[in-house]
Amino acid sequence: MTRLLLASAAIGLALAAPAEARDQIRIVGSSTVFPFSTAVAEQFARKTGNAAPVVESTGSGGGIQIFCSGVGENTPDITNASRRIEQSELEMCAQNGVEEVVEVKVGYDGIVLASSSEGEEFPLTIPQLWLALAREVPVNGEMAANPYRSWNQVDARLPNEPIEVLGPPPTSGTRDAFVELVMEVGCESFPEVEALDDDAKDEACAAMREDGAYIDAGENDNLIVQRLQANPTALGIFGFSFLDQNSDTLTGHPIAGEEPTFENIADGAYPVSRSLYFYIKKAHIGVVPGIEEYTQEFLSEEASGEEGYLADRGLIPMPEEEHMQVDEIVKAMTPLTSVE
Question: Assuming Cys at both sites, which of 100, 161, 176, 213 could form a disulfide with 282, CB separation 3.0 to 4.6 Å?
């Protein structure tokens, strides 16, 4: 029994001691949540006197992989995500000793298509976007490599400009959400896709072009913004907040007849919108100082409320009732048990 107790104590020290050596919160994850997280980190440091958390933009998928790698000083305390964690990822966390993960929903965001304000603004439908960006599309009744090089080849009503879209990589939650909300919806309009078996249909709907029309621009959305400013005919895919913060140089393109505005995303009219989250490693609470205070700052009315400083940066606030539900989860630090 004594040996068992000593062994248990040793395990506890192995988990706790490395984290105790660090007094600064470490955050990884979504490039979309990154600007909101850094703003909260600055306010948290100013109000508490603690060191400002270190926030890294690694992409949602990449951040979850790092977050789920284990517990202790060398692993992050929080990961930001522009999509919900998947059940397989939650199970990966548990397998690596990250057995209690607290989900914190912080608000909403729209995924926009934008270009330089010097370029031509034109409306797009979701089926048109799929035709422009899918790896294979219907050609003469058969699925074939995408032949479209300009927007007017997709639809004669669109401009005679080359299809050049800068977007996030596969590790990005923005990419995942774009595939789910645009690509997988747009493909349903075509009988040639509907006729495929389930596996082939999934592949046809989700696979993005790799011939230069869609350009993987990495996890740095600010870099996409800079490249759009240099190329007026290119379009970029990123979160609404980056359009909002660069509205003097960028123009958002309507999708399905709806402008990408704060109001349209907030009331659900804009069709390409998603929830934003961060996830807390419960084993680090009380070991790395300030995690609870940082979370409280993020969910405060001053930060993520309707008139909060994050709304000024483009975050779409949650309705009051939903905000209260998230508050209850955070007060109890209730772990996420499964993902439906």
Answer: 100
Residue the block writes with tokens 């040996």: 3
Which H/E stretch holds residue 46?
helix 34-48
- The four Cα atoms 168, 170, 173, 175 give a dihedral, to 10 degrees, of 50
- Band (pLDDT 50/70/90 cuts) for residue 10 is very low
CA 204 to chain centre: 23
Of the candidates 173, 172, 175, which has an alpha carbon nearest to the alpha carbon of residue 219?
A: 172
pTM: 0.82
The label of the residue with tokens 């990408």 reads: 260
Instruction: Give the separation between CA 24 and CA 63, rounded to whole angstroms.
Output: 18
Burial of residue 160 (number of CB atoms within 10 Å: 0-12, 13-18, 19+): exposed
Using alpha carbons only, give the angle 12, 51, 316 rounded to the nearest 5 degrees: 100
Per the DSSP assignment, residues forming a β-bridge with 208 are 134
Tokens 């959400």 sit on residue = 177
Query: What percent of the chain shows pLDDT beyond 90?
Result: 84
Tokens of 84: 């919900």
Q: Residues 138-183: pLDDT tens digits?
A: 999 999 999 999 999 999 999 999 999 999 999 889 999 999 999 9
